[in-house]
Write a structure and sequence with these properties.
The protein is α/β, with parallel strands linked by helices. The protein contains 4 helices and 8 strands. The protein has a single domain, classed as Hypothetical Protein Aq_1857, Chain: A. It starts with 8 loop residues before the first strand and ends with a helix. The chain has a 5-stranded mixed sheet.
């Protein structure tokens, strides 16, 4: 078994390149996995702090220097899957920062293997994450 925890969220090089463009214009960024509002269940990119994180959110990790969150209720469904943030051409119907670029972020997912499941990266509840940010 690997000593490094299995990441819960990954990112493609194309999505990293889009983040680089957005970061240059907007500064630090964050993601929140939409729970069905606006653009279905797309990952939404915001300027860091623009989306208010609370006790009903879970921090899954970082992708390309950006914190990635989703709602606790949605995490109950997705906790057995590894998420990969990708980007595709086309406009989404959301408030995500990439929309004016003519692209949208999307999620690709797969189930964790049994070995990966035994070595999962920890998640933080929203309140735990926030408490760590103020220390």
């Amino acid at each position: 078994m690997s000593s490094k925890p299995t990441p819960r969220v990954l990112i493609t090089p194309a999505a990293e390149a889009t983040i680089d463009v957005l970061r240059e214009e907007h500064g630090p960024l964050m993601f929140h996995q939409s729970g069905g509002c606006c653009d279905g269940s797309s990952p939404m990119c915001f300027t860091k702090g623009e989306f208010r994180i609370g006790g009903n959110d879970v921090w899954l990790g970082q992708i390309h220097g950006c914190d990635f969150f989703m709602s606790t209720s949605q995490f109950e469904y997705w906790q057995h899957t590894q998420l990969t943030v990708d980007v595709t051409k086309g406009r989404g119907a959301s408030f995500s920062l990439e929309i004016p670029l003519g692209v949208r972020f999307l999620i690709r997912s797969r189930l964790f293997t049994e070995e990966e499941s035994r070595n999962m990266a920890p998640v933080l509840e929203g309140e735990e994450y926030l408490a760590g940010q103020t220390q």
